[in-house]
Amino acid sequence: MPKLRGEAFWRETLRSAHYVVAPMVDQSELAWRLLSRRHGAQLCYTPMLHAQVFLRDANYRRENLYGEACPEDRPLIVQFCANDPEVFVQAALLAQDYCDAIDLNLGCPQMIAKRGHYGAFLQEEWDLLQRMILLANEKLSVPITCKIRVFPEISKTVKYAQMLEKAGCQLLTVHGRTKEQKGPLAGVASWEHIQAVRKAVSIPVFANGNIQCLSDVEECIRKTGVHGVMSAEGNLHNPALFEGRNPLVWEMAEEYLEIVQKYPCPLSYVRAHLFKLWHHTLQVYQQLREELAKVKTLEGIVDVNRELKLRCQEEIANQKEGEKPKEGLPFFHWICQPYIRPGPKERCKENGASGTEKGVRGKRALEEEDDGISELLSKNKQKKKLRNPNKSFDPSLKPKYAKCDQCGNPKGNKCVFNMCRGCCKKRAFKETADCPGHGLLFKTKYEKSLSWQSSQRVIQNPEISRRGAVDVGETAALEETGDS
């Protein structure tokens, strides 16, 4: 039977899915997919899998895809990151019997994707992408799909999408942000880009970005004309998003933990999900936040979840009539609701010291100190400052380093060439010179090599050795007689 394509694939294989759970590294595992499907999700993606690792590692395949068969977990799309056509297709061939389509990740904007040269960092390499999709479309028994990020220019984004369609992509998910829009710089996704792509291609299109509740989904479909809408962070904070409900957090947490007991996953995944579900509550009960971070067993996580539930129920019992949610939240903190990612400056003031338990330091307390310097610190630097309060992170107080004469990087203080180690190494090698400051001894090693070669010649030719001895004897005799 020939594989279905385009609209027919979306309508029959994907069952006209409108509500889609995004591929999320370490977060869209089987247990979470099943929870999401119970509450309105119609299509799920696996976490992003590395094609090369999937191809060579049987354990990786088993842990991420070949585990317990679960008929409820369909339709399912397996997503790979890759930058080699053969590796991508070989990995996809091993996965195609366990899913309904294979997705090529062209949207990951993280530094690990830049180092590994995949995801959104392939979006300028159209020849390579064409070869990857053409080969996959030819070899696989299931359709090939792609998830992309946009270019700043709508026209270039449209040409990009048309190129992928022409190569054989059967469904396109468009995240309406550029690869530079991530973390605190994420900003608002452009539905205009998505709408332009939808009008320019004949294959189904999913939209991704700005989805926090069901009304966002409906508005996105109405404005862009897409076939479906994908949610990532919105789904993590409220797995009942596609039902249009805002349930009590502990209801979702307890249901998820029950599924995990049947379909186990790494403890780090479970902990990360509870941090998202309980996000707003954990700003209030900081002590339990620390306990959740340190717990080592699933039973321990269940206990922390139970304690959070009891604290919230006690707070509800003591609630005054007419009391409103704090911190500008649309609902009380024990209700599943969107988390609005703060901007670069807002991030530092988010959930300050207010709302914390008595005697417990606020999550962002450091940012109010040091005359505003700390508001620019990353989370890692804030943690370092907690461990070492006397350490200064003011860039103006950092020591100034002399620059390398060649490239401008900091030079070695004892370098004989006044260069950084990289430039010094090149020059010392070229000139057969030493630089003790950088531990480079090309001249010394060369001289030792010559000495060793000379000694080897003497050993291999005894005549030279005897002649050398005669010469030494004659010289000594001449010296004794005073002749020179």
From TrEMBL:
Cellular component, GO annotation: cytoplasm; nucleus
Group of enzyme by EC: oxidoreductase
Pfam families reported in the protein's UniProt record: Dus
Cofactor(s) annotated in UniProt: FMN
Signal peptide: none
Catalytic activity entry: 5,6-dihydrouridine(17) in tRNA + NAD(+) = uridine(17) in tRNA + NADH + H(+); 5,6-dihydrouridine(17) in tRNA + NADP(+) = uridine(17) in tRNA + NADPH + H(+); 5,6-dihydrouridine(16) in tRNA + NADP(+) = uridine(16) in tRNA + NADPH + H(+); 5,6-dihydrouridine(16) in tRNA + NAD(+) = uridine(16) in tRNA + NADH + H(+)
Source species, domain of life: Eukaryota
Localization of this protein: Cytoplasm; Nucleus
EC assignment: 1.3.1.88
UniProt domain DUS-like FMN-binding: residue ranges: 21-310
Transcription regulation listed as a keyword: no
Keywords annotated in UniProt: Cytoplasm, Flavoprotein, FMN, NAD, NADP, Nucleus, Oxidoreductase, tRNA processing
Disordered: annotated segments: 371-394
GO MF term (any one): flavin adenine dinucleotide binding
PANTHER family xrefs: TRNA-DIHYDROURIDINE SYNTHASE, TRNA-DIHYDROURIDINE(16_17) SYNTHASE [NAD(P)(+)]-LIKE
Family in the record: Belongs to the Dus family. Dus1 subfamily.
General function of this protein: Catalyzes the synthesis of dihydrouridine, a modified base found in the D-loop of most tRNAs. Specifically modifies U16 and U17 in cytoplasmic tRNAs. Affects the level of some mature tRNA and thereby the total cellular translation.
Protein name: tRNA-dihydrouridine(16/17) synthase [NAD(P)(+)]-like
Organism: Smutsornis africanus (Double-banded courser)
